[in-house]
Write a structure and sequence with these properties.
This protein is of the alpha+beta class. The chain has two helices and 13 strands; from the N terminus they run ββββααβββββββββ.
Length: 184
């Protein structure tokens, strides 16, 4: 028995090739009214909910809104992952690297001065605590959009087993680089 799929919307995007060909799944309605997708890699006929990760609405306008809201939700989630809000303020992203004789921690702190950052080593962790202040000249400005976090921040980094001492601390180009020398 053969099954005919009828397209319910043609995706229009810059990624679409000549003649309207694309490798992206195309939502289609089966003759029985259920949804499926064509052009899903490796499968000829896959339920739309499996191919797209969500149940596809019947109305093409709803489908576009569903996709747009999905993109916005993903962008919001990624933003929260980079600048995680915590109970004490916000938590800056870090890199933790190890060499033969030291640990190097790089912390993204745009707009933070060295005087506004404190480091505490103890209990097998490094605590980076401080505050990002709004520049004095902008405190009376009207805010249209504010995505960079301000206020108190704290980041606790579990250190690999061993003993360490602070040997260097540099704040340059919005990144705090902390070097902890290995002892023993």
């Amino acid at each position: 028995m053969s099954l005919t799929l009828f397209p319910i919307m043609a995706p229009a995007s810059p990624a679409m090739g000549p003649g309207g060909n694309t490798s992206a799944p195309i939502p289609c309605r089966r003759p029985d009214g259920t949804l499926a997708c064509r052009n899903f890699p490796g499968k000829a006929d896959v339920p739309a909910s499996q191919a797209m990760g969500v149940e596809m609405p019947r109305d093409p306008t709803e489908a576009m809104w569903t996709q747009a809201l999905g993109v916005l939700a993903r962008a919001d989630r990624l933003h929260r992952e980079v600048f995680r809000p915590v109970q004490v303020g916000w938590e800056p992203p870090i890199d933790l690297l190890e060499t033969e004789d030291a640990l190097v921690i790089v912390v993204a702190l745009p707009g933070v001065t060295a005087a506004d950052v404190d480091l505490v080593i103890g209990g097998g962790e490094l605590a980076i605590v401080g505050q990002r202040r709004l520049p004095a000249g902008l405190r009376s400005a009207r805010v249209h959009r504010m995505e960079l976090p301000h206020g108190r921040f704290e980041r606790r980094v579990l250190l690999p087993p061993g003993a360490y001492e602070l040997s260097r601390r540099d704040l340059q180009d919005g990144c705090l680089t902390v070097t902890l020398r290995k002892l023993g």
